[in-house]
Records
---
Amino acid sequence: LYGYTGHTLAKMLVTVSTGIITGLFAVFLSKFTGAITEWKLGVIEDKSWFVSFLLFWLIGSVLVSAATALVQYWAPASAGAGVTLVMAYLNGNHVPNLLRFETLISKFLGTVCAVSAALPMGPEGPMVHIGACVASCITYIECKCMDGGIFSIFTNCFSCFSRRGHDFNLKEKMKILDEIVSDSDHREFVSAGVSAGISAAFGAPVGGVLFSMEEACSFWSRKTAWRCFIAATLSTFTIQLMNRSAQHGMIAFTGLRAMENKDWLMQLPFLIINSGMAGLLGAAFNSFRMWLWKVRAVKTRHVLRILEVIGLVFLVSLLGHFFGWAAGMCKPFPEGWQEEGYGLRFNCEEGQYNDLATMFLSSQHHTIIKLFSVGHDDTVDVEEDKYTPPFSIGSLALFATIYLGLMSVGAGLAIPGGLFMPSILLGASWGCFWGLILRLWLPAWNIMPGLYAILAATGVLAGVFRSAISLVVLVVEGTRGIDYLIGVILAVIVANWVAHHIHHDGVYESELERIGNVYMLRDEPPHRLFTLTAEAIMATGVVGFRTITPVSRILEMMRTTTHNGFPVFADEEPEDEDGGGGGGELPSTKALVGLAHSSSAADISNAEKALTSGRLEGVILRSQLLVLLQRRHFCDADGRPIGRDYSEQQELDLETEMRTFFRRYFTHARYISATAQPLDELKLDGVHAGSTTLDLSNLYIDLRPYMNRSPLTIRKDCSAARAHQVFLNLGLRHLLVVDAHNHVVGIITRKDLDHAAGHGWWRMSHMAEPPQNN
Amino acid sequence: LYGYTGHTLAKMLVTVSTGIITGLFAVFLSKFTGAITEWKLGVIEDKSWFVSFLLFWLIGSVLVSAATALVQYWAPASAGAGVTLVMAYLNGNHVPNLLRFETLISKFLGTVCAVSAALPMGPEGPMVHIGACVASCITYIECKCMDGGIFSIFTNCFSCFSRRGHDFNLKEKMKILDEIVSDSDHREFVSAGVSAGISAAFGAPVGGVLFSMEEACSFWSRKTAWRCFIAATLSTFTIQLMNRSAQHGMIAFTGLRAMENKDWLMQLPFLIINSGMAGLLGAAFNSFRMWLWKVRAVKTRHVLRILEVIGLVFLVSLLGHFFGWAAGMCKPFPEGWQEEGYGLRFNCEEGQYNDLATMFLSSQHHTIIKLFSVGHDDTVDVEEDKYTPPFSIGSLALFATIYLGLMSVGAGLAIPGGLFMPSILLGASWGCFWGLILRLWLPAWNIMPGLYAILAATGVLAGVFRSAISLVVLVVEGTRGIDYLIGVILAVIVANWVAHHIHHDGVYESELERIGNVYMLRDEPPHRLFTLTAEAIMATGVVGFRTITPVSRILEMMRTTTHNGFPVFADEEPEDEDGGGGGGELPSTKALVGLAHSSSAADISNAEKALTSGRLEGVILRSQLLVLLQRRHFCDADGRPIGRDYSEQQELDLETEMRTFFRRYFTHARYISATAQPLDELKLDGVHAGSTTLDLSNLYIDLRPYMNRSPLTIRKDCSAARAHQVFLNLGLRHLLVVDAHNHVVGIITRKDLDHAAGHGWWRMSHMAEPPQNN
């Protein structure tokens, strides 16, 4: 009907539910956080300085201990913002446990705790991870059910749908789902989840899609764009419906006036200084963070990690109370604040609040909105001298300085939490400070500190993350401040430019550098690769098979390596090569067959160890070999089948099984498949003597019907940058390097490319090890 | 200094000037158009029905005749919107004269005329083309100066810059410019120009960048994004500065209220119908247009083309006056209209205006703003019955119907003009009509017809162009209606979905299909390619050279083909091939050398005609061959140089000359280079007997030092979809197809891929011819 198959419908269903459920998570996240914060502030209100400090610390400690314990003992993948790991996943890496249901729950609860404990962490980064987890869980729901694992709430959604007049039964539905969870589809859904998450966090659907495109995804197509778009829209819409009182944007401010062209031009130098300084702050934060990471020894003990977080809560509480007491100014409540429950009375008189304590101890989200709105409730030309901003200049300066320190210390703890909100708060306090100073200095200039706060927040974000277009759209959609579009763009450009001269990479890139076991490939080849050839960066000593290979050898190779693909070489006498490895002469298959008949399996593999080159005929995957072994798809040395007869249906089944091999398991099945475990389960060889062990010496597998006959290859004298391009643009996992005669001389994988780029201009933090030849 | 070389600086300068100059063009475009329209309306005011009609027609005819004459006699590439051809250029096609200075001027003047003649055409599409031309002209300015061609205003800008304290002299500057105009850089600048153009047209910098990304560009990188971003921002900023009275967005409306969640939910069905119908209208326009294109015989005579356009003006004038007289309603002027000069009195009393005549005959831009604002100047609960919308329901319905017809007739004429503005006007009139009906029917429902007009305009745009994210951002930025974001997104999704079921392609894609000589490659491989192999779509009979080739043969091949790249085959005895072409046995080079010594050049080429296969050694480009021939870089049959000595400097010069071959000429130099013209100029062979003709029989060229030794190849049994991916993602011009022994069996070019996809689901309009084997 209309070209829509059940397949498409199921995919659309996944997208739609991803959007809605991510939106619900965001709603509950903000509700829970708000409720806990309010309760906590209620408890400490009207208490004395010291009691309040203790209570704040105590409540915070309980919260963060719970969060850290969850992370440490249950779902380690949920620490931090998680954006970087999701990026790495979308780039093509496999990150174990990143997108599991446990991670989702732990991330959600942990973020609630961390944000309500007033740690310098925000819910936006985690929302990205939560969205990705939701998408992943929904697609894998079927596998979970079959595994008999945790009962998942999403089952309801599916089964209720299948009952609602659509007449495909459960079995059929399963089949459809079975088909949709291919690797690339899964990545697409995760991208949609990322968009939904960020769009829910900021109330910015277009910004969410662009973030997904600019930062998170390495592959992008029109289909992915539509999927992200729908998911992001639905998540935002869900929030709006659930949360009647919510503004359309999460950080929408109120009532700033639009500025005249004249004012823009006059204030241009100040705005540039403002954004430039903000970019500096952002870059400084990145630097502090990397430095602290090096200084701070990595705690391995769980208890120490928990104590670390409790220490940070102590610090926040102590500094907040101390400076609130020592330096905070008492100010009368502006209109509307008391109704919202914003503003801490602290040590002030009735009807007043302490500005510094309020900034430190109450909800960051509220503080940001207040800072963005500074300057709206007064007109410039009336009673110039009597204007009292809600936060004093001194308090703002003090707060910005201390907060930068706290942010840096807070990053890298074993607790979920993102950097968006703290960056915005840091920028807003700096911008407000600068705007108030300018206002004092040039009272006639119609300066709105709130605008400066918005632009500085944008600048800090640009300095920290180095995004461009997505950031502009996020800020504009989030604040609904479309009248300041030009200012926002200016801030992004200036801050990026300034921060680029401090150090080259945004926080995501630096973090990916730091994580050793992830090979992130850049969109554009690093400079260093332009001077190298493919030959220089490839791993040599590729192991492969003849077209008809003894089973024992296949088992041997699969046990001794962890490769996912093996080249298949042609059955011809190899010509002499001058540039070959150390592998002596290569015996032809015929000779090996002779050997196989006369000696044990171990001898064969020794003799064939040298088979590291030959004319490339095709590539066979580990999963395909596993299926062939499992089916006992054997033949003799001349390719005649043994113990089975050919039927077309069987061959079709075999092909289907090969294609869907990974889809029947979780992502981490890839890891398991690379170990010896599935081989042991097959009970084929004598190493694990079972009752069904066969005599393998006469058994072969004919790889020709199954291998990929047209693998993409590059010549060895091709430039390494070209290899990078080919690899990344086509989404390859391995790229064989051949010489002019189509003989394999090496292989390039993600790891090789990453290592080869190791000394490039962009890798400032540490030098990578040279690629290890396997 | 700070890692910025002169190179980067020059590039940045080009980007900046592109943005500013495109902005200036937009300013003047809108000023001229406004002035002419105002003058015209002043002339026909207070005249009788018939005189007014004649005058309107007469003035319009003069204007459009001028525009069409410019297009027909001076710059044919400036007809239509030009967006499609710019897209084709950015996709990798060469379109002659598309980006020349003449085209720019003709486009600018033509658009002014067409828009002010009240034809159903807008200035947005042409702005894209203008932006692209500006970018191209700026980059090629240097070549123009050297050619002694038209004196260009941009020279001033450059020379004034070079004087301003920067101490590189003119010569050095030239060298820098010489380096920046490589093909890929040029595409980057043109992309930036496109962004600047669209951003200037709508006042939407982010939307401009996204349009460039989503619609126009086939290649996209972070660097391109930044370049587009800066150009787009500057062009918008320029407009704002120049045009003090301008709103921030070009189609910004005034004073609609934000809607409650409740209202959104209640009106959801109406909104969906609204957007769906709008999508239908858009798709219907596309269909009409394609149909009319088939029906209407293509006029070849210039005069006929001009008469055609005059006929359209006649139609507009006639229909406008007739319906204004017959069906138009007289309404009292709302507040503010008379000051703006909007509203035609026509046959009405003093202080009143005729709504239908106003819509037909006055500025479209103003009408759109008025339509978007319907519903703002009244509150629903007060005096329900007395509300009089500025346009009556009947007039709106009539207008929308007739306008759809006029738009369809107008498309494809030989006059510059875009589709954005007419589509918006069509959508706005439909949406306003629907909104007013709903309002009559459900007076208590708080329905704002202006909102419906905005969303319907979005829907028509989505139906016509099938963009997604860029459209949302364009509309939101253009109207500044960020409160209606969710509605806009909804409209885009619904309209796209509806329109997709009418026919698959947007107007750009259909138009690209129609243009026969452009091979546009889609982002994703067409379905049909998945079932084919590379062998099935490649062109066979590739001609190539041996590594040491007689000059006469090179000349022969370059004269008889128009290829830009030739494979170079290894000097080895080819093995027997079973799947070879009809080429019999292939004589080895040694045998050919014998032939060459004993017979004439013509004999050699006949004997070597068979040389269409062999083991691939490398690829040599036509431009490289031209340079080698020009330099008389000859050798004898064994590779010893003749008539020259090797020096390192000479070799370096040669390499530089090869690399910069095309940069020293305009884009269309590629066409010339593919003809015999440059060969004739070299005066090498006897065909054009000159005084310097050499005896070529003993002269050879050794291609080995210059050829690309590592061309990317694919195996012949690779899937055609894979070939498409490789080709597009890596931006190739030719892709050699080899067999397992690395022998060339064919070549895939842009043309082959396009033809192979010819019968796919998306190519509805006509069947392509099968690929012609050269």
---
Amino acid sequence: MVTMRDVAQRAGVSIATVSFVLNDTKPVTAATRRRIEQAMSELGFRRNVVARALASRRTHIIAMAYPALDHKFGFTAAEFFTSAADAARKQDYHLVLWPVGNDGTELTELVGQGLVDGVVLMEVQLDDPRVGILQETGTPFALIGRTTELAGLDHVDIDFDTTVEEAVGYLHGLGHRRLALISGNLKDPVFRTYGPYVRSEAAYRRVAAEYGLETVVLESGGSTRAGQEAAAQLIREHPETTAVLVVNEFAALGVLSGLTRLGHNVPADISVLPLLMSPETAAMSDPELTIMRTPGPELGQLGTEALIRQLEGATPLPPQLIPATLHPAGSTAPPRSPGDR
Amino acid sequence: MVTMRDVAQRAGVSIATVSFVLNDTKPVTAATRRRIEQAMSELGFRRNVVARALASRRTHIIAMAYPALDHKFGFTAAEFFTSAADAARKQDYHLVLWPVGNDGTELTELVGQGLVDGVVLMEVQLDDPRVGILQETGTPFALIGRTTELAGLDHVDIDFDTTVEEAVGYLHGLGHRRLALISGNLKDPVFRTYGPYVRSEAAYRRVAAEYGLETVVLESGGSTRAGQEAAAQLIREHPETTAVLVVNEFAALGVLSGLTRLGHNVPADISVLPLLMSPETAAMSDPELTIMRTPGPELGQLGTEALIRQLEGATPLPPQLIPATLHPAGSTAPPRSPGDR
């Protein structure tokens, strides 16, 4: 059977261009169109009528691809999802959640069926294989997150630089000089190039250096249990620490309860500041956590907006970076000996 | 335009039988088939080729309908969803999450498109309008939950009777005689006939009566904040209470932190036992909560299994009720004066 790839090769164009002509989704110059049509006719390419109808119909359904089996789905993820669903509904679209893996295998099976008009990608990796798959299949998409190569991609993301600057500045202002970061487990292949871990750590190293602080970075899995273990490691290896930043929200809850169980009072002995957390999660802990509040509601809405503008042929949404914002509560305080070095 | 209904009337058969012939989904006797084909020809009935292809094709996608804008999506819901997604994947299906409202309006729009082979319904109400919609549109479905009328419906659910019996029996065995139940807010139209609230309360009233205990029932919204308010109300109106059962997991977290903030030690002054919670949520609190563990992983798997058996024409899964199971931890203990009445 002759495929779009064969047609593209013969005509000397990309598969995407063939798709534009077939589905009439983007304007193509008359010359290119002629070349493609000639290649189709020479190769005997004939699209199945049903497949064409399926491909061209608009379902007004968009999917949020969230790798729920690898990335725990908690309150923060729910904030992204529900705000995206709400934004879609307001524009007469339906949003569904696809719990497909990050490697793109399942995504390939799903986008081929013409079930959705477009995809919002969550939990983006620096070298995300899902991007290539969506491009090859001509599926409109927007990223909540950033790959290394971003040219021409609609995206919105957390502003990790500003977030970490505000967090470190706040702790420094309280008098803390012995900080540590508990980041994610970059040895785990699923998280090796996971944007939030990589970018938070890079920002922390840069900002700590600017303040002339020693950098301490520990890794933790994304669970309460793993956070408790990281807390024990921190106390064992860096007992001088007076404040700790934690990237993963579940690990942060574990760091808090782990420190408490080891007899360390939060915040009197040590301050705990999660870099990405929802107020709902923060309210669960005792003391209530001071947090950098994840801009989940904003980003869910903007990511969906970016995709829908693409689908409707409207002016693209410019890329946006939104910082997490400081919500002071009960897990941070000045150190026992201010300015202790 | 001639419809399937016209054909059914002319042939003197049900619309379903016309559909079986058109889509070749179930065997129909040769005589009936002939009668239907004749009616089609006399009436000039011609199904659009694309519509037919759409209606008959199998997408191998199933949807879990979860009203995420009304029912908070936390760890417990995530357990249902991820175990369902996993079960689907193992049988070569994809599961997506549809955050559609409980009233059925959006569901109607979605099932008409032939995008999914079937639907798993979550957060079922006693008089759930979604059931009628799925029946009318001929969409295969299974319930995780129970409506009042269940005849012929594939369903699995929590065994609330056994769950409450075990919970009350455990607290009674510790010496508690002054129990209270914090249930959901049945005045809120969204939760008025929400199965877990209605069934937990009914079971509690029955079991408490069997033990000869006074019944105290308070209502709470499903949030940490609402749980904190319910805790304050409990202390104000029923200060003699030594143990409290809470249905909603977010309210339960609020009851725990609310009691603590009001100066009541859990479990020394009062025991707290959530009736439906995931271990993940329980581990977040300090002290770690003793819980009745929601059988989310089991029910997500079984609900999906029930639907897929239907889709594959296999033997139906018999209805199953699974109780939550007691996981003792730090929020329950004997009362200060055992047997205090």
